[in-house]
Amino acid sequence: MQTVQKSGDNTKHNLLDGIKSTFRSNVRQYAMLIALVVIIIIFQILTNGILLVPMNVANLILQNSYVFILAIGMTLCILTGGNIDLSVGSVCAFIGALLGTFIVSMKMNIWLAIVFCLVAGLIIGIWQGFWIAYVRIPAFIVTLAGMLIFRGLTITMLKGLTLSPFPESFQKLSGGYIPDIFKGASALNLTAIIAGIIISIVYIFLEAKKWSASKKNEYESNSLYVMIGKIALVVVATNLVFYWFAKYKGIPVIFVIVGVLVFVYSFFANNTIQGRYLYAMGGNEKAAKLSGINTNRVLFFSYVNMAVLSAVASIAFTSRLNAAAPQSGTNFELDAIAACFIGGASAYGGVGTVIGAIIGALVMGVLNNGMSIMGVGSDMQMTIKGFVLLMAVAFDVFSKSKR
Fold first, then answer.
1. What is the rounded distance in angstroms from the CA atom of residue 345 to the CA atom of residue 78?
2. Rounded average pLDDT over 253-258
3. Is residue 194 packed enough to be buried (19+ CB in 10 Å), middle (13-18) or exposed (0-12)?
4. Which conformational region is residue 35 in: left (phi greater than 0), alpha (psi within -120 to 50 degrees), or beta?
5. How high is the pLDDT of residue 348?
6. For the CA atoms of 350, 382, 333, 99, what is the dihedral angle to 10 degrees?
7. 177 - beta bridge partners?
8. Which residue, 45, 168, 221, 287, shows the most beta carbons closer than 10 Å to its own?
9. 219 or 233, greater pLDDT
10. pLDDT of 67 above 60
11. Residue 127's Cα: distance from chain center in Å?
């Protein structure tokens, strides 16, 4: 009897130790995830249940899609040593102006125009990346110059005018939904329900495989109970989101695009050599260089990638706005930077994840959406968001000093 009780006590003790260890090693990310859940619950109560109405959930994704995309790229820049890109808003506006010129004014095929705009983003990234990585002008200065240059070029190209409307096929990139292949079989969009189940199964398989490999190779890993709890939470959240989609119009096209980007960049950062170079450089650039890492190339890549993702974000935003305007992209860079820092990226570099940046973007998005539903003025919204950003970075500094 005593042996059974002792075994039970050990299991409970190991479980608590596993939870503490997991939380401690990912303190910023888990803290903001908890904060996100708390914020959602608070606004769900304050808005009398409007926040989590299926239509509003879909609109939350659509409205913040550009922030998700920019935050992914900004995370890679921050990882290299706390570097940021101040030009992304102006680059988005410039690419939007190109889209308006190509599609609205010149009546160009939308797919050809999109390819040209992505190439333009690549060229912009090469231009800025060269000065930052090889001439070693501080990223702050180069991207500040880029912010002014591309805003000026946008105004010059549009001549102060707004170009619209875009073709309906272009608008569907950010406002369209995946058709239900089981249309008429149910009041719900069954395609969305099945997609949620498939994604859950794939996630369970990948997590179980990862945990098994860690145990086999004797790497540090979570306890079985912690892993099961984590999987259960993710699976419930995933299927809940897809259920909301199923009750509305289905899966938004832009949600699929963002989902693919999150998966690809998470895999790149965590499972490839080049991705680990970003963390190594941010942790200690001199040590990374001495170990044989070409830090100039790593820095160059991060800014080229940022510009290309800025072009993608511009396509998503312009499609939703249905217009190319000179003032487009204002404060986009601040939204992306705030999302990264709130989501767990360190202001000193070397720490941060793509998933964390998405959590940070969701925190900002829920705050914006919830306060808008409540009728809070834009001045107060800016004050609250600024306070949240300050507290997130202060938490990073405090947790570093404690360690």
1. 7
2. 94
3. middle
4. alpha
5. 84
6. 150
7. 252
8. 221
9. 233
10. yes
11. 24
Burial of 66 (0-12, 13-18, 19+ CB in 10 A): buried
| Mean pLDDT within 165-178 | 91
- Listed as own residue / partner, the contacts of 261-264 with beta carbons closer than 8 Å and 24 or more positions apart are 261/68, 261/69, 261/72, 261/309, 261/312, 262/68, 262/72, 262/354, 262/355, 262/358
CA 84-89-91 angle, to 5 degrees, is 95
Cα–Cα distance between 382 and 393 in angstroms, integer?
Answer: 17
DSSP-H helix ranges across 26-53: 27-46
Residue 41 tokens read as: 């619950």
Structure tokens at 389: 């950003």
What whole-number distance in Å separates Cα of residue 346 and Cα of residue 330?
24
- 3-state DSSP percent of the chain in helix, strand and coil, to 5: 75, 0, 20
Rg (CA), the chain: 22
* Domains of the chain and CATH, by start: 23-176+252-402 (1.10.3470)
Cα distance between residue 62 and residue 229, in whole Å: 30
- Residues with Cβ within 8 Å of 359's Cβ and at least 6 positions away in sequence, in order, are 29, 32, 33, 36, 342, 343, 344
Report residue 257 CA to chain centroid gap.
Answer: 12
